[in-house]
Amino acid sequence: MAPETIDHSTLHKLVESGVVDAAHVIGTQGGWSLTVKYGHTERPLAAQRSRQIRLFKRLETVVNYLKDVGIARFEVDASNYDPGRSEENDPTRQG
Description:
Elements: H1 8-17, E1 20-28, E2 31-38, E3 41-44, H2 59-69, E4 75-77
Parallel strand pairs: 1-4
Antiparallel strand pairs: 1-2, 2-3
Organism: Escherichia coli
Protein name: RelB/DinJ family addiction module antitoxin
């Protein structure tokens, strides 16, 4: 069963209401996910179209996203981060 998620609009409303207690950026295979804690609830951010957990490819992108939404302080857990193989650095790629 997929975890319950929040979307951008909900996150924006939570931040405006001042109820966000913490944000956690979590390194995973291929990128970074974002989990937000508010009250006794902790939920990952969903991608708008797919409704799946949003995966940011670059840490800088999630940092800018959080600052834009109004969250300037957050925790980063890079212990399971694995960028995977980048196409531009793939020696088997012809181009």
